[in-house]
Amino acid sequence: MKQTSRNIVMIRPVNFFSNPETSESNRFQKPEQRPDCAQSAARAEFDGYVAALRATGVQVLVIEDQQPGDTPDSIFPNNWLSMHADGRVFLYPMEAPNRRRERRDSTLQRLRQDFHIESVVDLSGFEAQQQFLEGTGSIVFDHPARVAYVCRSSRSHPAVLAALLAQLGYRAELFDAVDRHGAAIYHTNVMMAVGSRLAVVCLASIRDAAQREQLCSSLRQAGKQIIDIDYRQMESFCGNVIELADADGNAVFAMSSRAWHSFSPAQQAQLQANGRVAHAPLDTIENLGGGGARCMVAENFLPEKR
Q1: Which NCBIfam families did the record assign (predicted)?
Q2: In CATH, which superfamily holds the domain spanning 7-299?
């Protein structure tokens, strides 16, 4: 399976605000704005990001969230859905009850118009046991190497991970990652990203030296160059980037403008040497949602209908 996809799915929000059900474990949330202005700001940021991605040749399928707007985090579909090259779709168990409403059959029906879905593997039953695994938020995949990188948190339960990896035939690289205050980082994809040749990682967040070295060794064995970001850069969502592909298969690094401007000049040059960069302002979404450019993208590896 390829590491990058030129097709992605994004959900345009109808009632975005800072989700109180996720704030306990998501220290990246900064609920400073009132919900009535958050929606209009987030909608404008969403549309700007979509335009920036399409300008590089990434194929973006935008699906409108449905009313009633009781899904404040619907803008982050990668947590409940992953789409794979063999036609399988995986649905994931979500920690916050109001996020479980994001799993909509209508989204799958829309996908079936243009893509082949061979089967749907629904892991949401683990919610009854209070066991969660929030898609490619919890997991950062290296598909060619068949590795799943996961930092331990309340949203990444090993039993669900084992069930998923048994289906995929991947191995896990588990580790502990914490913020500058020692709290567990809620999702792996805010502290690391893995592309075809580059990996962005906040190594300082992995305080156990053996775990840190094991992670670096695994990445290097897969041929990745490591861009090490510090806590300030991680808090600016430099870890929440994603490598996509244009129509010709060339790399496109997607991120927020805040993240782009927080990379050092040398790191920016390293990214640009390996692909194009697409960025857009996502301050409202990042501050209130605690997620950013990568979280907004659900990669679509499903076979296309011709």
Answers
A1: citrull_CtlX
A2: L-arginine/glycine Amidinotransferase; Chain A (3.75.10.10)
